[in-house]
Amino acid sequence: MSLAGPRTMREILADLGVPHGLVMGVIVQGRRYGLDYVPADGDEVTLISPPAGG
Amino acid sequence: MNQLAAQEPLCTGCRTCELLCAFSRFGEMNPRKAALRVHGEFPAPGAYHLSLCTQCGECADVCPTEAIGLDETRGAYVIDPELCTDCGVCVDACPENVMFTHREAATPIKCDLCGECVEICPRGVLSVVDSGTGATVVAAGTAAAATHAAPAGTAAAVGAWATNSAAGAGTAPAGGPKAALPGYAGTLLRVDLTAGTAVKEPLPEVLAREYLGGRGFVAKLLWDEVPAGADPLGPDNRVIMASGPLAGAFVPAGAKVEFGAKSPATGGYGDSNMGGHLAAEMKYAGYDVVVFQGASPTPVYLYIDDGRVELRDANKYWGQGSFATEKALKDDLGEDFQIATIGPAGENLVRYACISHDFGRQAGRTGIGAVLGSKKMKAVAVRGSRSFPAADPGRVMKLGKEMFAHCAAAPLFKEWQDYGTASVTTWVNDIGCFPTRNFSTSYYEEFERFSGEVMRESIIVNDKACYACPLACGKYSHTKVKTASGVELEAHVEGPEYETTALVGGNCMLGSMEEVAYVNWVMDELGLDTISAGSTVAWALECLEKGLITRDQVEGRELTFGDLESVLWLCEKIAARDGYIGRLLADGTRLAAAKVGGDSLDFAIQVKGLEMSGYDSRNATAMLLSYMTADIGAAHNRSWAVTHDLATERRGVEGKAAKVVELQHTRPMFDTLGVCRLQWIELGMPVERYAEMLSALAGVEYTWDDLLRISEKVFNLTRAFNVREIPGYGRAMDLPPARVWKDPVPTGPSAGASVPLETVHALLDDYYRLRGWTEDGLPTAAKLRELGLDDVAEALGAG
User: Fold this and answer.
1) How does pLDDT run across A21-31, given as a tens digit for each residue?
2) CATH code assigned at B197
3) Facing residues of B126 across strands?
4) What CATH number does the domain containing B103 carry?
5) Using the beta-carbon criterion (under 8 Å), do B682 and A22 form an inter-chain contact?
6) How far is the alpha carbon of B424 from chain A, nearest alpha carbon, in Å?
């Protein structure tokens, strides 16, 4: 997707209408980040969904 | 010359390599026919070691018939079955002890470097290297077309690749032994502890076809065999230990064994399952289900070594902790026995005593450990070397490889490998559902101390897998703590799982991950369910704060939230049923509140007598309804609906019951099949794959919808069991603790949230209507007959 400028994942998800809480964090290049992560150009971002109970 | 090599620190002990090695050679699911072995070193230091063939050639040097020769193409020594006389000289000479014998194999079993184990290993532990240079020849996941690969999904094809094995000739027929029930071991073992007998009965085909296994077997056998009104802690109760058709099969995490009994915690239907390696070992020993009935006058344990079954004296183990008993039994019997034990809490009939296995796996819920304790059954030790049949082993192989590949390619695979269930802790707090201070609030200010990242950095020493599980969500830890009075303590423990972190960490307000892990170990060793024990301790601490329990009643001690010594002292008292407070709390919060009085029942966080697991649901009504209607009490195992709440109106009613019913049929099906659900729910494995795998194993075509219908039948049967066993059973038994509507959440993201009693009833109205039950929540005759439960309808006199 294209962004007008730097945005946190929290902001991007809000723009997409994803309810708060349905994403725990993100993985970029094998590393885990919180929703304050600001994607760089070309990043492939994996959303971490909440585990469904132990 | 090439050889297998291992990076042992990466090994999680899943033994998928053993399973596939044997399956690819013989077309049989039987790791005792593998050409390599995984060994665990537990409880300390918590590491795995592998026995691998180095292709040293000493076997060839000593072979008197020159049956072992070098295959130049593969760089491996292989056995010519035409020349081998099975004299065993090579086995004795092997310096690595990696030439194995099996009574069904015509020759010793030896690694021929086929590469299947390298390809399947989920952690990249194994590789094929050049013996001289150490250079990697075949790396993990990149094995060339394996020698034994089945070209097509047929049993005939399996026979073809078995003949290429060193031990292929003269072994069991393609597809393993024949039996009336493919996918099953075919035997029900009935252990009468009063008579001191163990009798093998054919597994009834109708039971397998209509109830499948695991939870289905438990529900049906309890309904049929436990006399109405039986004392849960009396000899008339039964304990059912059931594997499932996918347990031990070539499928990710076919590792679940289900225990069931009439629950001493609730007085109704009780079950609990655990992973580890027991379910598979049962199948390999030849048993799908074990029924324990009666009661022994003295402590015993059940010894199973294939067809040899004995009740043995357990006096020397009685009184010992769960891990101590497991270690002692392995020392006495052999490392390859799989052990399940109870701890002192089970012996002393604590109503939420658990069953432990594999140095860290527990069937925790509903107090089945106490039922075993009432029967003086200290432990079960199982070793198996048999194969169980698959209707279409070629199809099983193809499906199994696809399912393992799906797991390895899942985007969240590594996340789960790194953190397991601990990855959820911070998130649950962020959404205002983290049980804190006996569920008085749902947000823990100091939550960062319990995050998965902190846990990974501070205490985890290894990842630990259940049988054939690529995830290895188990985290094996080493913890060191110092109490307020300066006592230094340390332990090795599997965990903590999220639920333990929630109920012991947040709910008792402990100060660090190290403290949670230490309490986790103490509860495990004592044989206490960490969920119910954490909740009961927190309830007692709140009662002390409110003066409902006095300081005299706790022997003059000052017990407080957040104090490690307070929690440890209460655990010891509970497990021993020692003193007033030990006896009071050993019965769980509902019965304890009836004795303590005041408003203490309002904040006894339980439903039906079973304490709630780790989600404060005052701001999540589908999760609340899940707790209210789970057949065993307030457990998340039937339905976990928090994300549905987040995606909808969090405290709404519309659509919540439908989601809960859907989940209550879906999630327990995994416990019925004997396979872990995490590969579905966390890694996105399509549910249809499980129906396909069952079809391939059993030779009966099932769709996932077929399985859901069985799940609905079982859910109605367990409800009927509760109606039969609990006087006055109905809507009142589905109500949550009054804290849900009386005490709004005071802090955090859910501040102000509560669920009014009228909303609680509206949720139940919807739920009962969707279930086809009466307004009081009783299964109707029409619904029971629709599900084929005519006898149940008649027994209940349902209208």
Assistant:
1) 889 888 898 78
2) 3.60.9.10
3) B6
4) 3.30.70.20
5) no
6) 6
